[in-house]
Amino acid sequence: MISTDSIVVASSDQVSSDLAGEIVMLNLKNGTYYGLDDVGARIWGLIQEPRPVAAVRDAILGEYEVEPERCERDLLALLRELQDSGLIEVKDAATA
């Protein structure tokens, strides 16, 4: 379960490339490609090093005009999708 206290980082089992502000990623384990739009690309950039979800949320709130509740909800949904796709690693803050 991902929460705002979780620590997230891009998995080492993927490669990614910036294509005009969007990100394309390849999961090296299953050979599947994924893509992120500009906001997703910004989030991807933020999680290249281990970072608390709350810090990612706060960075996005500072850069985009979005309601805090929607930002957190959408961020957690994206991170769950990335985790399910094997593109990020998630650790509980207590065990990180």
Mean pLDDT: 95
The structure class reads alpha+beta
Poorly predicted sequence stretches spanning 5 or more consecutive residues:
none
Proportion of strand residues: 25-35%
Distance between the termini: 15 Å
Total helices: the number is: 3
Overall geometry: globular
Radius of gyration: 13 Å
* Helicity range: 25-40%
Please list the strands of the largest sheet in the order they lie side by side.
5-1-6
Q: Count the beta strands.
A: 6
Major beta sheet summary: 3 strands, antiparallel
Give helix and strand order, one letter per element, not per position: EEEEHEHHE
Describe the structure.
The structure is a single chain. The chain has three helices and six strands, in the order ββββαβααβ. The protein has 96 residues and is α+β, with helices and mostly antiparallel strands. It has a domain of 60 residues. A hairpin with a 2-residue loop joins strand 2 and strand 3. The chain is globular.
